[in-house]
Specification:
This protein is 40% helix and 28% strand. By secondary structure, the chain is of the alpha+beta class. It folds into 3 domains: 2-41 and 86-148 and 328-347, ATPase, nucleotide binding domain (Nucleotidyltransferase, domain 5, 2-Layer Sandwich), CATH 3.30.420.40; 44-77, no CATH class; 157-320, Nucleotidyltransferase, domain 5, CATH 3.30.420. Strands 3-2-1-9-10-19 form a 6-stranded mixed sheet, with helices on both faces. Strands 13-12-11-17-18 form a 5-stranded mixed sheet, with helices on both faces. It has a 3-stranded antiparallel sheet with strand order 5-4-6. β1 (19-23) and β2 form a beta hairpin.
Amino acid sequence: MECAEDVLNWFYSLFSNDLAIDLGTANTKVYVKGKGIVSCEPSVVAVQKDSRGMRVLAVGRDAKEMLGKTPGNIVAIRPMKGGAIADFAVTEAMLRYFVNRAHNRRTLVRPRIIICVPFGITEVEKRAVKESAESAGAREVYLIEEPMAAAIGAGLPITEPSGNMIVDIGGGTTEVAVISLSGIVFSKSVKVGGDKMDEAIIHHMKRKYNLLVGERTAERIKCEIGTAFPMEQVLTMEVKGRDLLQGIPKPVVVNSDEVRDALTEPVGSIVDAIRTALEGTPPELSADIVDKGIVMTGGGSQLKNLDKLIREETGLPVTASDDPISAVVLGAGKALDEIDLLKEVTIPA
């Protein structure tokens, strides 16, 4: 029976472009089997609402450009919140857009799709992701937990009987997991990531300067001068926003030290999650982690000196994967390429 199934899958693969999708809070990445990553765009959808219902105007980069700049009847929505689907209809529209762009519409067979989801996702959320993918045109839907996909993408030996610790810091969640023998032994997930860091910067600008800045400006501050640990040289940048007292635009100069202070709470939550995972790890696997250290993936792991802070707090070696932003989708793509691995690491949808 398995042999017949393998032959059928092989036949399907000749006529279908199977996809791996990292459906992130901040960005959605699409991997096509045999081609690699073909798309990396913001998880944003611009919709127009009127008496006739909802119409999708733009998805991805074009929609993100509209954030904070739309007229009353157009709304730029981020349908993923904290790694979970917050708006089912808009997520389905976004998935359909990415699937249609990545999949060769001339092929006769619909694609198999593997989707990355947070660890500990609920049955309701699993069903929502699966139904969204099926509505978007999937033949089969597999779900893989983000820390597992990140570990595969980072090149960790997950099938061996040894402890591998991965810290995946995304836009909405941070996933800390210890993996051994193709399974997650212990995991801690917190709803803290790049978005919370942006929010912390927005609050800081409001509190200290009475200046209102948008999400995109806060993200730029984080990327350019944000840091988790004191730097040798203090960085500065000019920030433009709206003065809350006078109601007019004004520029201010901020430095990396004050941004570091503003980020203390979200960064502290990430460090606490790592500590909790280390405390919950069985002793034999802890010994492996002492030797191998901690591997970081995800866009949030690129915050300057975050590795130094974690090293200081845990006493363990910390390294970033070669391609932290793409590690999750690359890991899911690798699972898609190896059917035996795919069966081992995916979770029932």
